[in-house]
Design a protein that fits this description.
By secondary structure, this protein is of the alpha/beta class. It is built from 7 helices and 11 strands.
Length: about 260
Amino acid sequence: MNSGLNFSSNGEIEERLERVPTGIIDSLLMGGIPRGSVVLLIGDPKSGKTTFITQFMYNQLLSGADVIGLLVDVARYEFISNALDFGWGLMGYLNDRLHILDAYTQRLRGAPKFSFTEEVIPDIRDTSHLIDVIKDLTTKIILKNPEVENPPVIGVVSSLTPMFFETEKKQIYKFLEDLKGFAHKNKQVWLLEMNSGVEEPQVETIIKAIADGIIEMKLFEEDRTLRRYLRVYGMRRTRHVLSWVPYDITENGIVLQNQSL
């Protein structure tokens, strides 16, 4: 597995760059993801993408950021319950700094509703409405923090994959372009989860081209054992390590294995 660094053209700009520490892969990213980025988290099923998403969300809440979570393929009560398996107590942040957009309940007609009061997305195919909801939420967050310029707002989508089953591809591309423009303007960081190998290669290529960076998670078979690796590539406005890096999923979440970078 080859390694290398992607150097920015201006080291001074690099030093001034505002970053969002992930608490997971910061050693690969010069300290974190640049603010104003939409990052694609793509990988094999069961490679730990949802764990990565949840761990990232919890770390942001601990840091004081507001977090918007768009749940497309998992019920919110299940998402919150699964987080508790790692000791990540999301419940205490609901209706305060954790804003759950439920696109799962209505997508699975007749699915049981939960008693939280967060917004339910009635139709995931209406991507314009989805962007409007994200903009409205951001406005509410800004208004409750009038003394803070560009208060930290982090967003995650778990996951993009089911959207392709019900929504026209061009609508999804437009949603991602609109989200990227909004994230850039408001210095937000969005992490978009997606399974690899489900859509046609050209669809993955388009999504990767829209994103400001990619985190890829893979399962490799070595000595008759499945081992987990991740890598970062195409991350704009920052230097980053390009090598495949082994990681484990522990009781505390995702942990990179010891390495020399």
